[in-house]
Amino acid sequence: LPAPENSTARLRSFVVSTDPKVVVVPNFLDEAECRHFRALATGQMTRSLVGALAARGAEGDGASDGRGRVYSKLGTHRTSSSCMLRPMQTRVVDRVEQRLAGLAGLPVEQLERLVVVRYAPGERFAEHHDGRFRPVTVFVYLNDLPEGAGGETLFPHLGLSFIPRAGAAVMWPNPLPEGGEDSRMVHAGMPPKMGIKYGINCFFNDERMRILDRPTVEVAFEDAFLFDARAASANAALGAAIRTFNLDTAPPVTAVPG
After folding, report:
1. Angle between helix 31-41 and helix 91-104 axes, rounded to 10 deg
2. How far is 130 from 17, CA to CA, in rounded Å?
3. Using an 8 Å Cβ cutoff, are 154 and 185 in contact?
4. What is the pLDDT of residues 16-63, one digit of tens each?
5. pTM for the complete prediction?
6. Cα 63 vs. chain centroid, distance in angstroms?
7. How many angstroms separate the CA atoms of 20 and 136, rounded?
8. Residues 143, 165 contacting (CB under 8 angstroms)
9. How many angstroms separate the Cα of 82 from the Cα of each of 4, 79, 115?
10. What is the rounded distance in angstroms from the CA atom of residue 76 to the CA atom of residue 124?
């Protein structure tokens, strides 16, 4: 697996459980990438939601788990905060999404939107399962906590607990090989005793979550066409009419001065 950008090393992974297979990748993100994700979420956090299964045929947004729609709601057993990012929101996000797909061995199209989470002292996510419709979960820690500060990710049925370490990733499967829910993968986000824990929830879905249309052309800032709407308006004989300027046709980009 290639290492983060600006690193000449290759990432090493450690299998800490073989059945089910749980993998830890130290330094999956470098320090700058961790800072970037924390900065993206700054000022954008809202109370974390939990997934619930809607009745068959119910209306609402959410992914399918093969039995119906999964929607999000507030839950007393999850008290953290979250910020959902857009696919390819920045170059760093795009690069990390591609790295996650390589780690999971799944198409990036199956990757759900990344979610930055924050746990303040005392906040938690009680024991839960990510869902059989998610073949792989990767959780990435974005910062260290002081020694003995808690905030571990606990797998009670596996006897495993992971200490938050900046840049480290933990990957695990959610379904059994035959497709049913693997109850051994129930886990909990333990509350920090001090400090704030940051991480990223990275869920791969069994359905296609995005349609990618990557741009084939990228223009540097200094080479970009500079359009001044005020100057264009002053140079046009507008009268009382509203004028529009079509700057591009594919995709359509229109400027409306004033």
Report:
1. 120
2. 18
3. no
4. 999 999 999 999 999 999 999 999 999 999 989 776 654 443 333 445
5. 0.77
6. 15
7. 12
8. no
9. 24, 10, 6
10. 10
pLDDT in tens, 215-245: 777 888 888 888 887 777 776 555 556 677 7
SS3 of the chain: the string is CECCCCCCCECCCEEEEECCEEEEECCCCCHHHHHHHHHHHCCCCEECCEEEECCCCCCCCCCECCCCEEEEECCCCECCEEEECCCCCCHHHHHHHHHHHHHHCCCHHHECCCEEEEECCCCCEEEECCCCCCCEEEEEECCCCCCCCECCEEECCCCEEECCCCCCEEEEECECCCCCECHHHCEEECCECCCCEEEEEEEECCCCCCCCCCCCCCCCHHHCCCCCHHHHHHHCCCCCCCCCEEEEECCEEEECCC
Distance CA 54, CA 76 (A): 19
Tens digit of each residue's pLDDT (9 = 90 or more) over 100-124 = 999 999 999 999 999 999 999 999 9
Q: Per the omega criterion (within 30 degrees of 0), is the bond before 192 cis?
A: no
CB 80 within 8 A of CB 124: yes
Any idea how long the chain is? 258
